[in-house]
Amino acid sequence: MKRVTSLITLWVLSVAVLLPGVAGAQSAKPGNDIQTQLKSIQEQLKIIQDQLANRPPAWSRQLRASERFVVLAEFNNEAVLDKETGLVWEQTPSRDSYDWFVAHTNCSSSTVGNRKGWRLPTHQELSSLVEPSVAPPGPFLPAGHPFSNVQSRFYWSATTSASGSRFAIVESFNDVVYNGRVFADKLDTSISAWCVRGGQGVDPQ
Q1: CATH number of the domain located at residue range(s) 65-197 in this protein
Q2: Which residues contact residue 67 at a Cβ distance below 8 angstroms, ignoring those fewer than 6 apart?
Q3: Contact 8/52 with Cβ under 8 angstroms?
Q4: What is the per-residue burial (b if ≥16 Cβ within 10 Å, else e) of 70-104?
Q5: What pLDDT, in 10s, does the model give residues 5-53?
Q6: What is residue 26's predicted lDDT score, i.e. its pLDDT?
Q7: Confidence check: pLDDT of 136 > 80
Q8: What is the pTM of this model?
Q9: Alpha-carbon gap, residue 53 to 51, rounded angstroms
Q10: Domain boundaries, the chain
Q11: What is the pLDDT averaged over residues 143-156?
């Protein structure tokens, strides 16, 4: 918030400096000088808007869905940026189900929005999408979210279970019984995958 205030203050000060020049130009050289200085103001405003749009993610922020999620036109509207975490998610998760190993492979080899670099998310990353206040049966996502086809009962995470190497953590997004919770399932179970791009790509517990 301090950074936003500083940027806005900078723009206001720049306008204050330029406006006298605009007024002087009106009396001395109307036309080109005014247009040049107005163009300079517009360019500065565009810079500030770009900086605000590209602020780094902050897990301490809580944004409304309309502010938090951005459907990326650069990805043919097939991906969504989460401004809270900086992660980019598939806009439409696959309906298909796979075992854990195939889910890893499918995400790693996936091309979404004409971009590679996708992976299976950690369970903490999947959990960051869950909105605890949503009542069953879900989906347990923030109201007004831009995702579609979130219908699968569970989604694989890349996080293996501390209870054994034959298990990995799965997340429930649309189920009355499990209600947005995580639990471990066997690696050979057929479960859906929701691929993500960016982040650390580690396997924390």
Answers
A1: 3.10.100
A2: 83
A3: no
A4: eebeebeeebbbbbbbebbbbbbbbeebbbbeebb
A5: 454 554 444 544 444 544 444 444 556 788 887 878 887 777 666 555 5
A6: 47
A7: no
A8: 0.70
A9: 5
A10: 2-53, 65-197
A11: 88
